[in-house]
Structures are given as C-alpha cells and as structure tokens.
C-alpha cells in the first residue's frame, strides 16, 4: 500500500505535467483572450512524436525532448498562422470554435496515422525507486519535476528579460496600447502559440512515459485538465496556472487515495465547478483581472436569416412524412431516424447556444440523463415506455437546469468550460453510482419503444414516431422564438447588461431556455435508449456534444429549420457518400473549421 | 480650408470612416505642420478619438488619404506607423498596469535597438519627470491619474518620435496636473516634436495650440489659427462658454 507521501509525490508530479499544459493555456488566454481547446491535441501529438522518436528513431532522451518540443512548436505555429490568424477580425466566438475544430482534426489525424489502440512509450530511464522518507521516488519523477522547474525558470526569464517577453506581457495587459508601442501582435501570438505547443507536447510525452502508455483519448482529458488548472489559477495568470495545476494534481491524488481511481476526474471537475461558482476569476486573479469575458453583442455572427416560405416547409415536412410509403430501404429510414434524434438535440442546443448565447459543450449530458431516466423508469418501475421517455425529458430539463444554474452568472468562454465540466461530471457520476446506474456495465435489455400498449419496432413506426416528436418540438420552439419570450432571450444574448437594465431577470430566462432545451434533449436521449436497448456511460460522449454544435453552426445559430437541415446534412451526407466511420469525425472537424472561416452565420443564417 | 504650412508633417485628406453602416467621418481633412501643436476639438461622439485611431492605423478609413512626412500611411499596421516616428498618449493613459513604471517607460522604446541611448533617454525622462524617480519599481496601476499621465508621456517620448498624438491628455486630472501637462506639451513641442491632440477642454487646448480644428458629428466645421478660434464667437458659444460656466 502506498503511503501518503507517495500520494503527495504523485500529486505534485501529475500537477507538474498539468502545469506544462496549463501555462500554455494561460499564455494564450493572456494575449488573445482565447481558451485554446486544441491544447490537448498538441499534447497528444507530442506523445506520438515522442513515441516515433523513442521507438522508431531510438533517440537518446535529451534529443527526444528537443525533437518533441520543436515538432510540437511547429504544430502550434501552424495552428496560429492558418487556423486562427485569418479569424482575427471575425466574431468573438469564431476562434473558440476553430480551436475545437482543429482539435478534432488533429486527434483524428493521429488516430488514423497510428490507429486508436494504445501504445507503450518506454521511458528510457532506469526503473529504480529511491526511498524518500516514507515514500519512494523514481528517476522519471525527477525528470518530470526537472522539466517542470526548468520550463518555469525559462519562461520567467523570457517574460522578464527579453524584448519579446515584454511584448507578450504588454499585449496581455493592453493589446491596443502594446500595438501603439510598436509591438507586432501577430509575432506575439506566434511566440505564445509556439511556446504553449512546445510545453504541451513535452507534457504529453512525459505523461506517456509516466504511465508507459499513450492513446488518442489523452487529448480531451489533457485539454480538460489544463483548462481546469488554468481557470482555478485565474485565466491568463501564468504563475496562477502553475499553482492551480499543483493544487489540481494534489486534489486528484488524495481523492484517488480515499475513493479510488475512477473518482480522479470527478474531483478535477468538481474543483473547477466550485471555483467557477465561488470565484470565477480564479484563486489568484490579480486585482486588475478583466471580469469574465463580456462576450456579448458581437458574440455570434449577425446575419439575416434565409427566408423560407411556409409552403416550402410544409411540402418538405409532408415529403418526409410520406417517405416510408415509397420503396426506400430501411437503411435510409434508419439514417433519417438518427437525423431526427440528432435534430432534437440540435433544437435544444440551438436554443441554448444560439438564441440564448450560452455555448454549451456538454450537451450530450442531457441525452444521457434522459436516456438513463427513461431506461430505468421502464425497466425497474415498469413505467410504460411512452411515459418513461417524457419522464426522461422532464428529468433532463430539471436536472440539467439545476446543474447549470450555479454557472448562470458566467459568460462567454466560461459557460463553455462550465458546461464541458458538467457534462464530464454527469458521465463520471453515471460511471460511479453503481447502485442506480449499474456503473461501467451499463444498462441492457431496455424495452423497445411503445405507445399506448403498441410496440414500435418496425423502422416505419420508429421513423414516424421520432419524426413527429421532432416536428412537435420544432413547432413549439418556432412559436417560442416569435414570442415575447424569444425576444427576451435574444436581448440577453446580445447584451445582458442592457437586458438587465430593462428589468429582465437573467436567471429566470436562462432557466427557461435550459428547461425547454433540456426537455428536447432528454426526449431525444430517452428515445435513443429504447432504440439501442443498451446504454452505458460512454454512449453519449463529448463527440456528440461537438457534433451537435457543428450541426447548429451549420444550420445557423438559433435557427430552428437550420438545426434540422444541419442534422440531416451531417448525418445523411456521410452515409450518402459511404464515408468510413473513422473519417467522419475528421470531416465534422473540417466542416466546423470551414464554416467558422467562410460562413460563420451558417447555411440558413443566425436568428 | 486652411493650410498654414506649405509642407505638412501629417495630413489627412478627404477621409471617410465607417463603423459598420454608420459613417463617422465625412471628408475629413486635417494637416499638422512641422513643429506645430494642432488641436482637434469636439464634443462627445464627434469622431475625435476615431481620428486618432485612423492616424495610428487602429481603424482603417474607407476612403481618403493619410500621409506622414510625404509617405502614405494607408495599409500600414500600427507597429509600422509607430516605427515611422509617431508616438501616442492614448485616451485614459492605457498604461500596462501590472508592469512596473520603469518597464512601462522602456516599453515606449520598444521599436528602438540602441540600448545605451535608451538608457540615457530613461535618465533624461527622470529629469523631465522627477517624481517618477522614486516610483520606478512600483506597479504602474498603483499610481495616481496625474502620475500615470506623466508615465504615459515619458513612454511616448522614449521612441524619440517626430510627432506625438494625444487623446484628451488632461482628462480626469486635477487642475494642478492639468497645468503641468500643458506646460509639458509645450516644452516637448519646443524640443522639436510636433503634437496632434484631441481635446474636449477647448479653452485649455487653444492656449497652447498653433492651429485648431472643430469637429462636429464627423465634419470639420471650423478651423484656423488657435488664437483666432479662441475669439471666434461660434467656438465660444459651443465650447468655451460651456466649460467656463461649469
């Protein structure tokens, strides 16, 4: 059994690794007020470059570190130059979405190049442990600590004593004023992305050596942990990011010591939520720290929505309604059923993210809540499936709103971080709350859809059922947008301070949006559970959240018809072109990037 | 249009600027003669600060020409314009609050590479602004408004500019500091630096300026030697009367 000292050492080492990621995030946030969601992907790339260097090229350790740092820095520079710089004059949300797209593209490229199977990354260091008080410490621990300290020292010297370092600090404090001193902000961005990527890449390599295993799931985890550490320390605050990381490492390590390994991430995200709620500018925010991102007004691309005549919508709806009467394969129907289910999720997200301006990155959690509720109601309490699905929707509405409510006072990027964390928390609770959710085993034998005692098993009936449910939700939402309530939502999105000055209660309206959105997503999850007949904690994952976000942006934020068109397009087109499953996420990422760059208002325009 | 000097250092000619659909400047033309202090007067939302942003390249005009020392500034980035010899004292000072006073002043010399001369200039600033000597290692954000204004001016001078543009240098200062700032602007100018300043406080600005322009909702409505404008009843009514009564 390991001693407390061991857990402390482990916490500090892991914290060191997080710090390498978080410091980069803090530097980037400092100069460009951007949370770089691609940071974890660079960490992943670093790990795999390390693998190539060690296993294929047999480089000695110092050279491995240099190769990884240099290659990762290159990736960072490319991201900055081609992914983000063209968006400089774009809407504020664009760079955020671009980093999400870039992260998907990078992760998928790594996966396609190296296969998703885990690989061993040998550490190249002797496997010995030294006694240290009541614990032990190995050469790799010392290496990680050494790399962490050296990086911190180099960074300090860079920021304090070099001209470019001064430029970085000046830009972080006042971008316009820095430009008026002659600072080339593009060079500053470049420097910061290069440094952040080098540190992130080395971090990935070290973690790979520490656990002697690398796989593509590392990416999202690293982004999440880095973001947690950075926000805990105070966004944009470099020393804060280091302290936040060590704190996070220790909290996790002690949490694991007391409750077990599967609780590690739960502690990380709970720490984040607690900090976001109690002290959103972080534990070590300087007095002058900008308040949490006033990303209003220009947050989403303003545009005139494409007008679609009512008859055209009716014709389209009628055509889809009578489609099963034509000789179409059940494969086509199955694809469209998936599109309708995704459509419900997209309706929910387009309301929350588009109409209300709260860009949620954890929307899949609402699916999961709806799915588990409906499945458990019908299985354990023998509630009729039709009612159970509605129960799932209600539970999602209630629980989703309750979970997000502490974050109502957050704005912009912080909402995205909070929703991402809440999404992870839901998934981790499902994993760990075995007495109710059956933990990692999942729930099997979920009864099929049925309505008033009739089982809906044939593709036709499922098709009509899901289509009808989606249509009803879409009509309701369309009515909502045209109403006074819809206008209030948009007012809050466009300028929450002005909206408040007019007497709108932000909490009430945000709650209403999440209640409606939660219901739609919960119903979608509930139906999905009965269709799949088996679900577990990974059925509804972050990839689905991001897919829904891509759908919503493709259709046009806030646009009801757009959400449905986007769903059909993103589910249907890959099927139509028979694109292999492993390339799909790559394509979603590329679609997201292209949209952000060339048509941020989406196909049908934002509302 | 008045053009007091045949060879202006800075000139804006027929500049039209838009924020989205809204037009900010209508055929704006302004010249700053070498060695002069030129002041742009105007009320809120008249387009004064945008004029400064145009000169510094922070906002791009839709049409028109901006030249400095005979060469066009259109299409240049802000850092490139700064390297041509234009320094700025931005509105509300805009110091780097978490950097020390010393670092702030040295940031002004960012475009220079002659270290020894920069060090000498820093000493020169401390004789010009003796109060800052004791504050060098203090956080700039902890200074009073007047002291911050001194740092902002020292910072602007550190690039050895040919021209300084100032956005409301007396805004929010105590009367004591207002006089001090005006004196400093005059002495900076006597050392050979041209000054273009944007001001709301017309009576003060007209005291030290050579020429002045009056901007009203994006159009120059009056211009001429400062002395003449000071006695112009229209300026009196619009600005001086109001500010003296207040």
Structure overview:
Chain A has two domains: 4-128 and 147-278, ABC transporter involved in vitamin B12 uptake, BtuC (Orthogonal Bundle), CATH 1.10.3470; 329-541, no CATH class. Helices cover 71% and strands 2% of the residues of chain A. Chain A contains 24 helices and four strands. In chain A, the strands form two sheets. A two-stranded antiparallel ribbon of chain A has the order 1-2. In chain A, helix 5 packs across helix 6 (163-173), helix 9 (218-233) packs parallel to helix 11 and helix 14 crosses helix 21. With 246 residues, chain B is an alpha/beta fold. The radius of gyration of chain B is 18 Å and the shape is globular. In chain B, strands 6-7-8-3-9-10 form a six-stranded mixed β-sheet, with helices on both faces. In chain B, strands 2-1-4-5 form a four-stranded antiparallel β-sheet, covered by helices on one side. Chains A and B meet through helix 6 and helix 7 of A and helix 2 and helix 3 of B. Chain A: Keywords: Cell membrane, Membrane, Transmembrane, Transmembrane helix.
Features:
heterodimer, A: 607 residues, mainly alpha, ABC transporter involved in vitamin B12 uptake, BtuC, 2 domains, two-stranded antiparallel ribbon, 71% helix, globular, B: 246 residues, alpha/beta, Rossmann fold, six-stranded mixed β-sheet, four-stranded antiparallel β-sheet, 9 helices, disordered C terminus, amino-acid transport (chain B)
